[in-house]
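User: When convenient, might I ask for sequence and structure tokens for a protein?

AI:
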Amino acid sequence: MKAAEALPNVSLRHDRYGHESVVFAFPYKPDVVDAVRAIPGRRFDWEAREWWVPKAEATAPYVKGVLERHGWLTVSDEAESWLSKAVTGWVGRVSAGRHDGRGAFLLERIAGELPATLAAQGAETGSRTSLPFTKAVAEELEDLVGARFDQRASRSLQQLQIGRQPAPATLTYSQSVGEPRFKLEVNWDPDTIPAFLALPAAEAHGRTLPIDPYLLEPLEHYLRTFEVDVAANARVALQDLRREHSTAVEEVRRSRAHDGPDLSCEARLGGELRPFQRAGVHYVLDARRSFLADEQGLGKTVEALAALEEDDAFPAVVICPASLKLNWQRETMKWLPHRRVSLISGTGVSPDDGAEIVILNYEIVAAHAARLSLRRPKALILDESHYVKNPRAKRTQATRKLAQSLEPGALRLALTGTPVMNHPEELIAQLRIIGRLEDFGSGAKFARRFQGAGAEERIHWHLRRRCFVRRLKSEVLPQLPAKRQVVVPVALDNEREYRLAEQDVVAWLREQPLELSELEAKVAATLRAERLAQLNALKRLAARGKLGAALAWIDDFLASEEPLVVFSGNREVQGLVLERFPEALHIVGDDSIERREQAVAAFQNPSRPPGLLVCATRVAGQGITLTRASNVAFLDLEWTPAMHDQAEDRLHRIGQEESVTAWYLLAAQTIDETMIELIGRKRGIIGAVTDGRRDESEALIQSVVRELRETPKRRRLRPVA
């Protein structure tokens, strides 16, 4: 009897639909299985235990490659005939990469053998063959019918054909949905990618960078360092960027000016301007619509009044917090004694008809906006402009309506030492009111443009180039003594009560999701409010427990017969301090504006014995001068780091002759400790926008929650008696 012929491992058959296919049938071998799996369109027939591949020109090289690598596989005559016609010469993928520190073509064979001339120049690197970047190699590779070039290889091939050595990467121009961007196309050096992504505002997805003059210097340094080529379309954008950067740099320099020419109005002013104040006045008059954002204590009120006088911008409207109205009236009467001032209090009182400067607080702007518009004001000044950061707030909408009634050339000034309290997006409403938002496109474009790594520094730079003047005390008043912060850890006298409450709060926090952004909006808002309530309860317990030690510290300090300012945001603590020191002056929420002014005047009076001034942080943290004292104590902490800086700067400002020390009396091993550690880190975003510095930042409350959930807790402070 004749033995049956063995079936070939590879044959041609028709599937059940009548399509011709290549069928692989072989004993299981992992390496052969992996090779067949690499063939496009392959499928496995689980019943027959066979691999089926479409018979096509695209799949033929892969089939032939499998047979070349695994010569023991037998092939039917029909399949052999088809392959001999479908595949001729070398077939494979061609890319570009680095070999021995230089660019090279990287070839991955699918089937066939390289021509001898190319094979002689090749070097085997694992499963690939590298070929040098030469014009001759490029031309011969292009002649290979079976060569399949990826984008990197194609770009390198084109460069070699025109006699240029391929650059490691190419910078191209990309028009995205938001704004035009530069895009990095790697030619052969992958090391260009991490350095590019390290550039400010670079996005990993798509490897793009905003076309922004702020980024020009680091970008050009990157291009030189890595010898990156610039495509023709990107070259035009880069040239435009250089011209824009050159102009912008001069504007940024002006926003930092320390000196300026004399003003024509100085003889009419009730005092002498400092050189940096003259420079500030010149800047805001040139810009017309700008932020006057000098550091707290450098005399922004004086600069604004001098700008009004120099520009003859009357009638003028000044909008400020209610607690600062009398301060504005006093400063106006001092610096512009020849101008008529009207102070508006309440919603039913109209300003004097002949008043040249009208002062009112944000809460009553809506009631007076229409009448003020009829006066056709030539200037609008917003003091502490972050009061209009919320576009949905009634005071913001009323202030915006009033601003829109001004003539296009009117003077618009936003005064603030901290134009952003926690989020850069809070600038949008302020920019809209002073008429500068169009410089950034729109609110949506502003938010979209300034996001990601380095966004805060970019905002700062672009503000400076258009509408933002800010100088620091360290820059313009080097003679002003430095400010320092000292933490004084104190012990709790309600230790057991606090620890029980802390355990309950931490347990509750651990039951809640850490990231609320993934929750439905109403649920997230409810949990966020509950978090704040729980944390504030801990703060109150800590404040109550350390009060005995804090009062003793204040008593000991006053024995030195030096003036002391004490800040607290807790009404209960404020009351207990005043109960313990009944002779102390105070500026708290229940005090009228007149009583607050009297307290400041009495405290600053050098003929009065030095004493104690008790202040509510949110009431007295801005707009007043307390330079008689050089020591300030904080009995509790606020969730917004900027409030502490503002409060400290009531003392650390023009007129201070001694080094200011801020004493933070904090309960050791409590939420106080967690907050003071994080506040130092969370100040970064405000510094980045206002001073051009940057630190990683996230919401302080979220950070405290994260810290409290950690186990074990970290403890650094040791209580002292």
